[in-house]
Amino acid sequence: MTTARRDTYTPETLLSVAVQVFNERGYDGTSMEHLSKAAGISKSSIYHHVSGKEELLRRAVSRALDGLFGILGEEHARVGRAVERLEYVTRRMVQVLISELPYVTLLLRVRGNTDTERWAMERRREFDHQVADLLKAAAADGDVRGDIEVRLATRLVFGMINSIAEWYRPGGRGMDDREVADAVTQLIFGGLRKED
């Protein structure tokens, strides 16, 4: 490894490599040795950028969580009928998942074995509850079917969206985030919206 490459290594490129290794090996199965080999730099060079692998995990899942929570602050997620806001949030969740695919994939795989993982799982639950509250509000407004239990519908919506992390490959079958978001939104709301 040349000094020039070490000098150009950034915290962002290190994070990208770490996320890839965490997703391949699992967080618990990844050592600093694995990270240094994948990055092509020494372990001491990694410690120049971060305190350890848990800091890398926290940065990675924070990036995913920031993307998801950012949706809830967008105007279309805050204004209008609950069902319209829910549809917007659903579409944007798909887009964020795809644009931040490795980071969201890692977030979906944390199991609560470390403080960072427990924190991430709690934040994810908080996000899920806010989306579930939108679905409840849409049901209370009479805009979604009353014969589907809200808790079950919420789990099915998240299940469909989160499954994208398992099969979507950028540049794969020619589908971009908009096409996937359109398909998911049509499937979910075609089944959820109350027929007139």
UniProtKB/TrEMBL annotation:
UniProt KW keywords: DNA-binding, Transcription, Transcription regulation
SUPFAM superfamilies from the UniProt entry: Homeodomain-like, Tetracyclin repressor-like, C-terminal domain
Gene3D superfamilies recorded: Homeodomain-like, Tetracycline Repressor, domain 2
Segments of the chain annotated as binding DNA: 31-50
Superkingdom classification of source: Bacteria
InterPro entries given in the database record: Homeodomain-like_sf, HTH-type_TetR-like_transc_reg, HTH_TetR, KstR2_TetR_C, Tet_transcr_reg_TetR-rel_C_sf
Domain named HTH tetR-type: residues: 8-68
A Pfam cross-reference name: TetR_C_24
Keyword Repressor found: no
Keyword hit for Ligase: no
MF GO annotations: DNA-binding transcription factor activity; transcription cis-regulatory region binding
Protein's name in the database: TetR/AcrR family transcriptional regulator
Organism the protein comes from: Streptomyces antnestii
